[in-house]
């Protein structure tokens, strides 16, 4: 399955925050949306799943496997979310429900999308927790989000997003709130899971060094517009736009690996 975004415009009131963004994500590709805060990268991702904030409108075209998503009724979009397209948010503390165990939250999408019994979904939740390398998964699934570390909460969020084996994963700055060591672990986890499932990936970040560890192609945004669209290797070695050149200068030194996957 593939995603095509064409001339996407997002407006909030009379302010245009995304202006004519176009890119594609072929089946199995790993594409990064990169830019500074306010560049429109997260809003672009939210538009794909119809999750824009109140007052925001999207025009243009977003086609998933040939099906137009802009204007699709919310009930139809809800069937896609977590099933064909998963999403991991930047801060799992706000994305997770504080009054439900993490096992119940992992199991929820399995029950909804696969019509699994409560018992079967609970067993799957343990298996998914193990798959994202959470320690002692039987114990972890009985805990609440506040009882876990930041890295563990992010692993739970990834388990939730991937429980139904989506064909596309959108990861919105999933390592920003983590320390460098945990960042590297989460990036490696996402890399291996994407390999295992053969899924496509949209990875959103402001850090070119992080992007180099997970994506092969990058879309650079500034003020809601695409300013560069190139392989990540090109962004690292010969950035064409001043924006990308600035991102390269600011790349996180502790994650910099010139011979990395990109």
TrEMBL record:
Primary localization: membrane
The family this protein is said to belong to: Belongs to the ABC transporter superfamily.
Protein name, as recorded: ABC transporter domain-containing protein
Lineage, uppermost ranks: Bacteria, Bacillati, Actinomycetota, Actinomycetes, Micrococcales
Domain of life per record: Bacteria
Its membrane topology: Peripheral membrane protein
PANTHER family: DIPEPTIDE TRANSPORT ATP-BINDING PROTEIN DPPD, OLIGOPEPTIDE TRANSPORT ATP-BINDING PROTEIN APPD
Gene3D superfamilies in alphabetical order: P-loop containing nucleotide triphosphate hydrolases
Keyword Transport found: yes
Subcellular localization: Cell membrane
Xref: Pfam families: ABC_tran
Keywords: ATP-binding, Cell membrane, Membrane, Nucleotide-binding, Transport
Positions of the ABC transporter domain: 3-248
Xref: SMART domains: AAA
């Amino acid at each position: 399955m593939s995603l095509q975004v064409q001339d996407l415009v997002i407006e909030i009131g009379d302010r245009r925050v995304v202006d004519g963004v176009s890119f594609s994500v072929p089946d199995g590709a790993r594409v990064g949306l990169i830019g500074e805060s306010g560049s429109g990268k997260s809003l672009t991702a939210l538009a794909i799943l119809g999750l824009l904030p109140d007052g925001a409108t999207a025009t243009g075209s977003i086609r998933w496997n040939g099906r137009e998503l802009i204007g699709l009724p919310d009930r139809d979009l809800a069937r896609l979310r977590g099933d064909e397209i998963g999403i991991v948010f930047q801060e799992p503390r706000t994305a997770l429900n504080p009054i439900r165990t993490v096992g119940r939250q992992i199991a929820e999408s399995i029950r909804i999308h696969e019509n699994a019994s409560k018992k079967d979904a609970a067993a799957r939740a343990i298996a998914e927790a193990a798959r994202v390398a959470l320690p002692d998964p039987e114990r972890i699934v009985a805990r609440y989000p506040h009882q876990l570390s930041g890295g563990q909460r992010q692993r739970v969020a990834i388990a939730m997003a991937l429980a139904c084996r989506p064909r596309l994963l959108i990861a919105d700055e999933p390592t920003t709130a983590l320390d460098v060591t945990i960042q590297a672990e989460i990036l490696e986890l996402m890399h291996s899971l994407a390999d295992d499932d053969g899924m496509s990936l949209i990875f959103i970040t402001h850090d070119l060094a992080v992007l180099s560890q997970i994506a092969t192609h990058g879309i650079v945004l500034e003020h809601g517009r695409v300013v560069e669209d190139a392989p990540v290797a090109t962004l690292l070695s010969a950035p064409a736009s001043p924006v990308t050149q600035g991102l390269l200068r600011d790349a996180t030194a502790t994650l910099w690996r010139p011979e990395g996957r990109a």
